[in-house]
Amino acid sequence: MVITVRGDIELVARAGHLFEGVTREFVCAARDLSTWAQPQAREAVRRRMAWSPGGVGVRKLLSPAALAGEESRRHLRLLAARGVQVRIASRPLPYETIVIDRSYAIMAGDPAAGVREYTVTDEPALVGGVWSLFDGVWEAAVELEAYLGTDRPHLDDAERAVLRTLSLGRTDEAAARTLGVSLRTYRRRVAALMAALEAETRFQAGKRAGELGLTS
Amino acid sequence: MVITVRGDIELVARAGHLFEGVTREFVCAARDLSTWAQPQAREAVRRRMAWSPGGVGVRKLLSPAALAGEESRRHLRLLAARGVQVRIASRPLPYETIVIDRSYAIMAGDPAAGVREYTVTDEPALVGGVWSLFDGVWEAAVELEAYLGTDRPHLDDAERAVLRTLSLGRTDEAAARTLGVSLRTYRRRVAALMAALEAETRFQAGKRAGELGLTS
DNA sequence: AAGGCGATGGCAGCTTCCTGCCATATACTC
DNA sequence: GAGTATATGGCAGGAAGCTGCCATCGCCTT
């Protein structure tokens, strides 16, 4: 069974009961928090949320863009406090996706289009496949608190350059030469980088950089 | 449009033309290489593959289980040599998935069932969503060569212990003391760990450890 | 012009790290 | 027992890394 609806209101009308019928699991991937802008939709979601403490696993997967505003962060933290698992994926997820109880999948159409289309299905292969892919992305994504906590130390150009030479395994002397600065300055910058990464040793700095995926 | 077929043969009969009509992109996620066991299916895939050099981007995403046998590895390397991008996801992907030209999605049903069911669709929202999720997993997955190369360096207890002390930022002397070995031995083990991580400096070792998620 | 400020470079001394060499110990094989 | 392999510890010398101090330079403000 596959149905396609246009817009939030029609979605709620046709598939709203699915939201309220969640018994075990509700997973949701989205680029940001702007979906469900319609009051009716939000209301339906809220009604569902009220049940969540009762054993329904709710997982919300978002892209970093969802953390843009301070308000968004507060909202997400609130959700997390209510038991919703929130993770941040490294890439945007333009097509919003919902899987309910591993039985129904709801996917939003191209966001570039005007009125948003939603496709709802209960085909086992589709639902299973989508859920499985979701789970893969979920596994690779990082916990909200961890993401906010690390606070992604913003490195300036000099620090990035230092990071690169360190990653190459050069000696300080060679690195300083390639960067065109003195040994003293280079080491000062290494010290600055380590401070930025809250590391006391170069090993710790490297580990931190690796964990944060600072490749450059 | 959504159709469901039972078994490889019927899939090829009903959707085989999709494989041969690839023009831009062919992506595929699977747990292992056992799919397409049927000769007809393999043949269809092979015909498709013959075109791939002509600009079709082929991405194959597998779980580590696909690397079980030496034969599998050879096969994958062969594919890679032919221009197929092969990556290994960290988790198994029980539901096999194919997306062709971002226009058609084919998803296999529960592998536990007897005859395998396949669902084929061209619903934009479904295809787009599946593709997007695939891309997310893909991004988090690791290149075949990198995976085989690094081969998840298996660290013994001694190396794990060293890793822990290094992560704590202790000096070698303190670390050696807490581990109850001499300074010389401790440093030998650090050198061994660095060799295992293919690192030339402690920074690189830390980075590698961070990237590999070696927390302990 | 004068002064403050921040980044740089040189120097020096210190700590830490790295490794080759040798001696010892333990275990395993023949 | 003799021989071999492997892990350990000590020592020493060298390489690399760290940082305090001071002088210099460019830039900005007053």
From TrEMBL, chains A, B:
InterPro entries: Sig_transdc_resp-reg_C-effctor (IPR016032), TrmB-like (IPR051797), Tscrpt_reg_LuxR_C (IPR000792), WH-like_DNA-bd_sf (IPR036388). Transmembrane segments: none annotated. GO terms for biological process: regulation of DNA-templated transcription. Residues 152-209 form the HTH luxR-type domain. SMART domains: HTH_LUXR (SM00421). One of its GO terms (molecular function) is DNA binding. It comes from Nonomuraea aridisoli. This is LuxR family transcriptional regulator. It comes from the Bacteria.
